[in-house]
Every structure is written in structure tokens, then in C-alpha cells.
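Appendix B, record 7
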Amino acid sequence: GTTAILLARAFGARVLVTAGSERKCAACRELGADEAFNYREVDFVEATRRATGGRGADVILDMVGGDYPGRDLAAASVEGRIAVIATQGGARAQIDLGLLLGKRLTVTGSTLRAQSVENKGRLAATLREKVWPLFGSRRLKPVIHARFPLGDAAGAHRLMESDVHIGKIILTV
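C-alpha cells (predicted):
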């Protein structure tokens, strides 16, 4: 999520995000999100409509899955694109096919695990060309919440399960 915010801003996008607490929403805004909605308190579909003047989001990056893809359709603009890249909220979803068709939406599912070696190579080349220079020049910096020695992987896992971290949890070897 944090890297997606950084990259979207770097490439000129207006960024709307959802997060599970006001603290996380504030952190997202500090990273460059234009709007941050606490999904525990606000209907993100309605909030997205308001924030876009009723248009909806042109691109949605869904890292949750579960019931989100169905709501993503409602939050998307006509001819919008939705990329589902994780299933933290569950691997099964129900969607309104009428809404999908009526808005002429494109939904893509993607994970690196399922990519061929050739595709992974192409993705790596694109990252080298378009993304790494942003980090190499220090224009963007990865958000690291905490570092743990490998021997304390259980501590790192507990932190991850607590859902209080913002950014990456790093295991050092």
C-alpha cells in the first residue's frame, strides 16, 4: 500500500486510499494520498464518488479481495480498471456482472507467483527502467516500519498480525 501511494504520486495520479484506522489514514496522507478513508467508519464507495465528483475511480488497486471487488465495481468510473493483487480479505468474491458490463470495466488479477519466467523478466526490466531510478535517486524512499533479526521472526510475525504497522517489516540476516 505505501509503495503504491508513492509510485502513483510519482507518476502523477490523484490518489484515494482506504485504511483501517485514522492513524493509518493520516500516514497515507503524509505519504501523498489526496484522500484517505477509514473503511471501518466510511463507505468507501460513496466517499470515492464524492471525492471524484460522481465520476468514480479510473484505476483501483485491490489488495484485499473478499467483498471488496464487488464494491470496487461500484466505486469505479465508466471504463475504469481494477487490478486485484492480493486476497487478504478472502479469495472468493461476488460481483454484479450487470455493473461490470454496463460500465465496461476491466478487471485484472495478478500475482508474481503465477507469472512465467519470461514475464517476470519483462516486469523486472520495466521496474529497472521506470521504478528503481525513483528510489535510486532518493526521490522515493521505501517505508520501513521495523527491522527484526532473522532469529526473531516470530516477533516480526506478531507485529504483522497486530495490524499496527505502517510500511514494511524487514527480517535481517
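Remarks on this record: The radius of gyration is 17 Å. The chain has a mean pLDDT of 93.
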